Structures are given as structure tokens and as C-alpha cells.
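pasting input
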Amino acid sequence: MEILKLELKRMLKSKLTLILLVLALLFSILLAYLPVTYCYSNYTDEAGNEVNLTGISSIAYEKKRQAAASGIVTPERVQQAVEDYQDCLNQYGVAESYNLPKGVYEQEILPIAPLLHGVKEAFADSDTGMAPAIMEIDSQQLKDYYSICEGRLVSLMAMEQPDNPAAQRRAAKMYRKVEKPFKVYPGMTSTVMDYQNIMGFLTLMFCVVIASPAFSVDYQSGSDDILRCTKYGRTNLAIAKLVSTLLISGAAFAVCSTLYILTANSLFGWECTKTSIQMMYSIVTLAEINIGELQWLFAAAGMLSVLASVSFTLFISSRCKSTVVSLAAALAFCIAPVVIYMALPGTLSAWICSILPASGTSIQASILYAITDFQFLNFGGFAVWTPYAVVGACIIEIPLFAFLAVRSYCSHTVN
Amino acid sequence: MELQIDHVSKQFKDKKAVNNISLKLTPGVWGLLGANGAGKTTLMRMIAGIMQPTSGNIAYDGVPIKKLGEQYRNIFGYLPQEFGFYQEFIVRDYLEYIAALKGLSGRQSRRRIHELLEQVSLLEVCNKKISRLSGGMKRRVGIAQALLNNPEVLILDEPTGGLDPGERVRFRNLLSEFAQNRIVLISTHIVPDVEYIAACHAMIKDGNLLVVGTTEELVRLAEGKVWSCTVPTGTVQKYEDKLQIVSLRNEDGGRTSIRYLAERPYTADSVSMAPRLEDLYLLLFPQNIGEGSRRHS
């Protein structure tokens, strides 16, 4: 315990650690604020003047305009919204909302827009996946809106996973379990989640930079010669280094994620977090959660991914005699999911990305996108949804790489 | 209490750094003498357990040190020749950290650290960052950490490097006091550092153990081979080319007194001198003459 206390003290006295932790905190707040700056609204006031709104005032304006759409997304409300949309466009003789005269969209369509989310997708062609225009949808069919959504999921899975009936069955079963009707509370955009992902990735990188010299710096400087000759300088010290690095990384990620979520939700409004995930992403998203739950779930999964990555980094550090090599190798593994996701074909990249420790918080290949996607890992008649695989892999990797790091440090000899 | 080095060898890719060395270290101060690259550091690292021998065995009181593990490290102190510190540490923090690793309790650790800081004259800088200390001070921090747990076996690899003459004397006194009933092995290529405090010496060359014995026994090996004479200063170069000169001293009247090693006297006026350990060292390592070993006064 004394060794752990002193190791924590040592790490927290390091300039590098302190700078990175402060940067992580600042980035969390900055990144939570950035999506606000992208919000933009435009309308014509009663005097005929064009008014442009940005940031918080834009969010407030849109929330006010869409207040009536808030609440439970019953098939009846969706049907009414579609009919209102069609009536409006018919009234002005246009086929698309962007052809409406100036100011009409803001007046007529904007207030019902949240209820229209996913309608086109639900009616997408089962063979081509092409979504129709809202004008082409028979509003009478919307009485059975959620059955149409379930049908859409079946056709989507048949397209996405044509050779994997197990995955198709699994997806259908998951979607049936999702609580319906959905709920929508306008105001927040998916950009907030994208930026939480960026925040997670940056924090992951910072934690990896903090962890990468844990053992290698001792090998490089020669201080290891003294440390490993002491009574507790092997297993105990290795465990103390491991635990302190994991504690600092875990705490940093927890604080940054919490700070991000608190800041973002305070800016966009806490009621927005009650929106069903299907009303922000695909209408047939498989997870039975709302946006608030998605934020915390992503934070928890990200934490596991950070701990797995740090554990893996410590293992790398215990194998490298130079801090530059250990840092380079650790960072390479951090960005590996991004590269693999872009470079390799679907099935192979899904497998590799699910196994890599950094997958939970990586850019593009993160667990956020896995939750909102429809990828399954298929093996011998079984199908595992990729978010489960990512989390499962991290849970295995944290103790596995921790054990390997301690073992590798203890067996290290000078040559 | 005995540390047995039994037929220990260490083979690197293209070099045998230590070749079949056997040595039995008993309580007292031991000097491990050898030129740079002789294999001293490799041998010490194997004794410290941070490098595995290619063959042979090192045992403490009959039990292999590898098997003793934590028990051996508990009674062991080590100062490597080159070592690093954590940049963020001040002297006291570093010693507290090492003390914890050596299993000292908080109170024990504070008391011992204070004692040692006093002994190595570092009390005044105990709150300074190690990275800001001079080379000699860093060396003394290294000495202090090695002594923290009052080790029964203390291995010091070139401990006096970077110390000024006053510090060297203080270090020798500290070690003489400390070495009672303990095994202390000091490696160096600076013979005067161990000549007066080490009771026994082992000299190694190219990884091979050449001689082992007490100072008296070893000095005897150089008897009749150390000479002194006075020559005109202008002719010193001629003598330097032909003789193994240990030291030179300028005398009055344009003459220089030389101390040299030879089987027979080179000049008629040469007189036989009482040998010192350094003479034997230079006899065994003739290439070291002129590499800073020769004293000129």
C-alpha cells in the first residue's frame, strides 16, 4: 500500500502527467461546447427581416418551435406529421421541402420535423434500400408504423448480413424487445455524441502517453537496476505501477466523461437525453436505450476500453527498452482501429476492431458507432452484436495484459 | 555469511564478458579491480541478480540467489555504475520511495534517511530535485540508497566516480565503519580508492580472474619489481619509451625522480622500492599506464 501511495505521488508529480491531465480536462469542456457553435437557425420575423441565430439562442429557438413535437412518438402523431407535411408541400405545389417559399419551412415543417425522423427510412425499398420521399408515402400505412419499422429491420439485415441467418434472427429479436413507441425531445443533435467520441479518443491518447514510459523509462535511464534489486522491486513494484497507472487513467476518463456529459447536457437541455436512440440515429437501431443512457453507456464502455488500452500499453512498456519505442508502439495500437476500419473489408475489420483494446473509444470504429450499427460477429451458427464483443474483449484484456505486463517486468533482465 | 560465485560465465553475442570466475566472498571489504571492459560490471550485475549468468551459479550461504529471491534482495544493496533517477523526485522523496521498496516502515525510513543524508553530506540539498544536483551529489544519493536497508551484501560499482578528493575520503570512512560483519564488494579501476579499506582484492582482466588475495599477499607479488631512480629531466621521454613508469616527480637541479616497474633495475643508481597495490595493478594491466593512472607531481 505504501509503495502504491508513493508511486501515485511520483506519477502525479510528473510534469508530463499533470500537463496531460489538465489538457484532458480542458478539452472535455471545450469539446462539449463546440457542438453548440455549429447550431444555426434562420427565420423571417414579423417585420419581414431575416434573423440568423447561432449557438445557445439557436438551440432555444428550435426547442421552442418544436416544443409541440416533444413527447411520445405514437403512430397517430407520426401519421399526422406526415399528412401535415404532405398538405403543406401540396399547398405550395412542390415535391421537396427545400423548394418551399422563404419562411414556410420554419413555420410549417420545422415544428413537426422531429416526428418525421426515420419515416423515410422505415419505408425504404426492401431490395435496394432506397428511401422514398415523404410525399410518396401512404399516410394510412402509418397506423401500423412500428410494424413497418420491424419489417424494415428484417429487410435491412437481409441486405447487411445475407449469409448469416443467426445475425438476422438475433437483430429481429433485439429490435422486438425495444420499447415502443419511441420518445423524442428535440434540441440535441448527434454531433454531441460524435464529440463525446472525440473527447474519449483524446483522453485515451493522453492516458496512453502517460502509461507508455511506466517501465521503459526505468530500463532506459538505468534506474531499473536499482529498483529491481530491492525487496519489493519486482512483483510488488510492477503491481503498484500498474494499479497507479490504471487508477489515474480510469479517474481521468471518468472525470472527463462526466464533465463532458454535464456540460453538453446543460447546454442542450437535460430533457433531450430522454429521446430514444432511434429518434436520433437509425429508426431501426437495435439498442433499447435513450440518449442519456447512450452517453453513460458510451462513457462506461469507453472507460473499459481506456483501461484495456492502458493495460496493453503497460505490457508494451514492459517489453521496450526505449520510451520512444514504447510510446510509438502504444500510439500505433491506439489508432490501429481507425486504419483497419478504413483499410480492410467489412467482416475482417469488424473482427479485428472488436478485439483491439482501443476500439471502444477510437474514431469511427468506436463502440458508439457499433451501437448504432448492425454489425455482428458470426461464428459457427452464433452471432454476437459487435458492442458486446468490444466490451467482452476489453473485460478479458484488462487483467490479461496486466498479468502479462507484471510477468514481463519481473522476468526482464539486463543484456 | 558467504557469497559464493561458482564457475560463473557470461557470454554475449560476440564476447565472453566473464569467463568461468569462481570466488568466495566473506565478510569485509573486497576490491574488484580491473581495467575498463574487464567484466567487473557484468560480474556485479550477475551478483545483483539483474543479469543471468550463461553458466555457473551464485549462492548466498549455500542457497542460489535466484531461489532466495526476495529474501536475498532484502539483505542486498546495490549501486550500479550508471543509473538514472526519476526527474520529478527530490532527494528525500527518492530515498523514501526506495526505502518503501526495501520494506522499511515509515518511521524507520525517515530515521534512516536522515542518518544517511547526514553521513553523505546531503542534508542541505534533501529538498532539491535530483536532476539539479551535481554528478558527485547524484553519486552520493546513489550510495545512500544502497545503504538504506543496512544490507549484509553491498555491491558498489565504481562508487567514487565523480566524487572530489574530500568526498572520497568521507566515503572511505563511511564504508569502513559500515563494513563490519558485512560483505562489501567495490569495483574500481582507481586502486587508491580501495587499497586502504579493502582487506581482499580480486583482479580481473578480459573476463578472467587473475589473482585473489589480501592486500599483503598481492603486494608481495610485485616485490623486487618496483624501482626508483633520478634522471635528467630532458631524458624522461627516452625512459618513458622503454620502461613502465608508475610515477614521475620533478626534483631540483633539472632532474626527475621516476618510479618504474621492471624485472631488473634499468639504471645502476636504481633502488628497490616497497611495492604498493597499484604497482601490481599496473604490472597486470600495463596498457593502463598513461591512461590517467600514472601520477606526475
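fyi Chain A is about 65% helix and 5% strand.
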